[in-house]
Amino acid sequence: MLPDSPAFDEPIHVGRPNLANPDEFLSLVGGALERRWLSNDGPLVREFEARVAEYLGVKHCLMIANGTIALEIAIKAAGLSGEVIVPSWTFVATVHALQWHGITPVFADVDAETHCLDPESVRSKITDRTTGILAVHLWGRPAPVAELAEIADEFGLELLYDAAHAFGVSVEDRMVGSFGRAEVFSFHATKFFNSIEGGAITTNDDDFAATVRLMRNFGFAGEDRVLGEGTNGKMTEIAAAMGLSNLGGLDDLLVVNRRNYEAYVREVGGLPGLRILPIGSTEGRSNFQYVVLLVEEDSPVSRDAILAALRANNILARRYFWPGCHRMEPYATLYPEASASLPATELIAERVIVLPTGTAVDEGDIGTIVGVIASALEG
Ligand code: T4K
After folding, report:
1. What are residue 45's phi and psi, to 5 degrees?
2. Does 136 contact ligand 1 (Cβ within 6 A)?
3. How many CB atoms lie within 10 A of CB 31?
4. Is the CB of residue 76 less than 8 Å from the CB of residue 271?
5. What pLDDT shows up at residue 114?
6. Cβ of 94 below 6 Å from ligand 1
7. Distance 17 CA to ligand 1 centre (A)
8. Ligand 1 atom 20 nearest Cα
9. Which residues pair with 276 in a beta bridge?
C-alpha cells in the first residue's frame, strides 16, 4: 500500500446487504411474474409470514412494506395517544412514527452499558397523559423486558417494542417477537436479514392482529367494505421473495456476524481507550448484526478523528445514532430541555462508531480496519 493510498480501493459499507441465496430469489420472483400476483396478500407474503411466525414462536406475523410504516400501524392499532415514552437513543424512525401521528414522544434515558431504556428513567417520565412505552432492542440487545412489563402493568400502559435490530435474538429461550402487545421488525436492505424493503408486526393478540391486517390495507375487510382508518402498508411479492430466500441462509448469516464480532473484539483488545460494546449475553442469543466501537474518555484521539481516518481509507463507518433524536428536528426545537434528563444518551452519542460487518467483510478485512484505527490512535 502506498503511504497515501486508501486501505480499501472500494468503499466498505456498514449496511452492505447480505444475499443468502440469489438463485432462489430469482426463481421465486419468476414464479410471481408467472402468476401475475405481485402484491396484496400474495402467496409469497403468506408463506413468509407463516415461516417467520414459526421461527419466532409467535401466533401472528403480519408483513408490512417497511419498518417505519409497521411502527405507525402498530402505534395506531394499540390506540396510543397523548404521550408515549421512547428512547432518544435510537434511529429517528422510532420517534418520527409517534410524532407523525400527533403523539408527544417523551424521551427517557438509556443505560450507559446496554444502550437500551433505563427502567428508572422510564418511571420518572410517566404522567397522567402517558398511554404507552415504545422500547427499542437497540443493536439487537433485548431491552429490559421484565422490568418494562412490570411498569406497563403497574400504570396500565401499552407496551410496544421496536425490534428493528433484533431479528433472531432471544431472551433466554423466548425469541424476540412475542414481548409486549406487539413487536415491530425491519427487513431493510441494510439489516442482516433483509427483504429489500420490508417489516413485520408480530403479536400473540388475535384482536390486535386483526386490526393490523385491516389497517395495512386501507381498512378493507372485503372488496368494497371499509371498516376503519387504514393506510397502504402492504408488502410486495418481490420483497417476500427476498425475505424467503434469505430465511434459508439465516443460520449461516448469524455465524458470519458472530465470527466478525469476535474478530473485532480480539483485534481491538489492547488498543488504549477503545472497546467493542458487548452485545451477547449469557441469558439469550444475539444476532451480532451491529459492531459498536466505543471511544472512551481515555482514548488518545477523539471519536471523530478515528471516524475521519476510517473514511479516508474508504471504510464508511457510521456514528449511529448521533446526536440522539432529541437533538434532531423537530425535537430539538419542540423539547429544548430534553438533554438535561438524558446524561447517558448524551455521553454515548459522543462515543460510538458502528463498524462494517456482515458477509461483505471477512477476518482479513477486519484486521485491516482495526489497523487503520490503531494508526489513527498514533495521531
Ligand atoms: N427502528 C430502528 C431502530 C431502525 O434502525 C430502523 C431502520 C427503523 C426503525 C425503520 O425501519 P425501516 O423503515 O428502514 O425498515 C439505515 C436504514 O435505511 C434503516 O433501515 C436503518 N434502520 C438505519 C439504522 O440505517 P441510513 O440512512 O444510514 O442508510 P443508508 O441508505 O445510508 O445505507 C447505509 C449504508 O449501507 C451506506 O454505506 C450504503 C450501504 N448500502 C445501502 C443500501 C440501501 C448498500 O451498500 N446497499 C444498499 O442497498 O439508514
Report:
1. -60, -45
2. yes
3. 14
4. no
5. 94
6. yes
7. 10
8. 188
9. 293
List the grid coordinates of 26: 430469482
pLDDT at position 379 is 77
Amino acid found at 299:
S
User: pTM for the whole thing?
Assistant: 0.97
| C-alpha distances in Å from residue 164, one per residue of 29, 181, 184 | 25, 16, 6
Residues 6+ apart with CB under 8 A from 332: 326
3-state SS assignment for residue 324: coil
Cβ atoms of 165 and 286 closer than 8 Å:
no
Distance 15 CA to ligand 1 centre (A): 7
Is 289's C-beta closer than 6 angstroms to any atom of ligand 1?
no
Ligand 1 centre and the CA of 189: distance in Å? 7
Q: Is the CB of 199 under 6 A from ligand 1?
A: yes
Give me the half-sphere count of Cα atoms (radius 13 Å) on the Cβ side of residue 5: 5
Out of 99, 184, 190, 195, give the residue to mutate to test ligand 1, the one with the largest number of ligand atoms within 8 Å of its CB. 190
What per-residue string of b and e applies to 283-309 under the rule 16 or more CB within 10 Å gives b? ebbbbbbbbbbbbeeebebebeebbeb
Locate all alpha helices (DSSP H) within 62-118, ordered by sequence.
67-77, 92-99
The set of cell numbers assigned to 75 is 402505534
Task: Indicate which residue's Cα is closest to atom 15 of ligand 1.
Answer: 67
Is the beta carbon of 18 within 6 A of some atom in ligand 1? no
Positions of the chain with pLDDT lower than 70, given as ranges: 1-3, 280-283
Tell me the one-letter amino acid at 55. Answer: Y
Give the count of beta carbons closer than 10 Å to the beta carbon of residue 77.
26
Q: Which residue has the cell 443493536?
A: 139
Backbone angles phi, psi at 172, to 5 degrees: 50, -125
Mutate to test the pocket of ligand 1, among 188, 194, 325 (most ligand atoms within 8 A of CB): 188
Contacts of residue 301, Cβ cutoff 8 Å, sequence gap at least 6: 376, 377, 379
Which residue, among 312, 309, 314, 295, has the nearest Cα to 373 in the 3D structure? 309
Grid cell at residue 171: 431472551
Ligand 1 atom 44 nearest Cα = 189
